[in-house]
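INTERNAL AUDIT FORM
Audit reference: QA-55
Scope: verify that the stored structure record matches its stored sequence.
Auditor: D.O.
Record contents follow.
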Amino acid sequence: MSAPPTRNGAEHEAVSFDGVWLTDREPGELLGARRVVVHVRDSDPIVFDEVASRQEAIAIAERVVEAIARATTKGEWAEIDERMVRPEAIVSVDVEFAE
């Protein structure tokens, strides 16, 4: 017979069944903060933002990509963290572990 589940009382839901912890957090979420980095050809990467979770970083990265797409459609340069960048010079928008 198994023991009843126990809860850890944290902000997120985590339950233990017989010593195995189950959580509603996504894989890798417990590994730490993430940052959104825009990589520009022939330039240093631009660290756009640093947040506590992967989910938050993905949402920010999606907004950055949308802003770049809007600038491209209008034939304008994209403003990224107070820098004006030609959209065609942007290599990628990445979500990375914060160091």
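Auditor finding: record pair retrieved intact. The chain is about 20% helix and 35% strand.
Action required: none
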